[in-house]
């Protein structure tokens, strides 16, 4: 994870920007061993896989940046998803408008036209199943 890209066969330009941001953050707020490990790992992968076009992608340095910004580890994936939501929706809209499939394939299989239920009134599927057993 963090290496390789379907399009880029060189170091992902976004990884270069994130690495620069990581360096600035570590310079201002102090270095730690994780950055040094990442740099050594990047060098080792480049030596062994660079000839195959395997270089750091945008995700390689993002965890270091998130961590240095104080974002808890369990929020890394949601931050990753939030950052990509606009692009995912743009691909979906293009797909609808162009009648052409874009990667990744997107097929919504969930319910449609469901009523909005405020979060404080929602129940989990497990609670609903238990209620069904009790009242049904």
The third-level CATH topology of the largest domain is: Cytochrome p450-Terp, domain 2
Query: Helix proportion of residues, in percent?
Result: 55-70%
Overall domain count: 2
Count of alpha and pi helical runs:
5
Q: Span from first to last CA?
A: 48 Å
- Output the CATH class name of the largest domain: Mainly Alpha
How would you characterize this protein structure?
The protein is extended. The chain has helices at 13-29, 33-49, 58-68, 76-98, 125-135. With 136 residues, it is mostly helical. α1 (13-29) packs parallel to α3. It is 58% helix and 0% strand. The chain folds into two domains: 1-71, Cytochrome P450-Terp, domain 2 (Cytochrome p450-Terp, domain 2, Orthogonal Bundle); 72-110, no CATH class. The N and C termini lie far apart (48 Å).
Summary keywords:
2 domains, Cytochrome p450-Terp, domain 2, 136 residues, 5 helices, single chain
Helix and strand layout, with pairings?
Layout: H1 13-29, H2 33-49, H3 58-68, H4 76-98, H5 125-135
Helix pairs in contact: 1-3
Short recap of the structure:
The protein has 136 residues and is mostly helical. It has helices at residues 13-29, 33-49, 58-68, 76-98, 125-135. The chain has 2 domains: 1-71, Orthogonal Bundle (Cytochrome p450-Terp, domain 2); 72-110, no CATH class.
């Amino acid at each position: 994870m963090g290496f390789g890209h379907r399009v880029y066969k060189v170091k992902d330009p976004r990884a270069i920007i994130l690495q620069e941001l990581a360096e600035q953050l570590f310079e201002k707020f102090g270095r730690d061993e994780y950055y040094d490990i990442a740099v050594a790992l990047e060098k080792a992968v480049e030596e062994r896989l660079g000839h195959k076009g395997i270089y750091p992608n945008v995700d390689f340095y993002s965890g270091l940046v998130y961590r240095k910004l104080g974002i808890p580890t369990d929020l890394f994936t949601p931050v990753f998803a939030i950052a990509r939501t606009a692009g995912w929706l743009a691909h979906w809209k293009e797909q609808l408008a162009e009648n052409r499939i874009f990667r990744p394939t997107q097929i919504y299989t969930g319910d449609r036209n469901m009523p909005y239920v405020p979060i404080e009134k929602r129940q989990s599927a497990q609670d609903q199943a238990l209620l069904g057993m009790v009242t049904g």
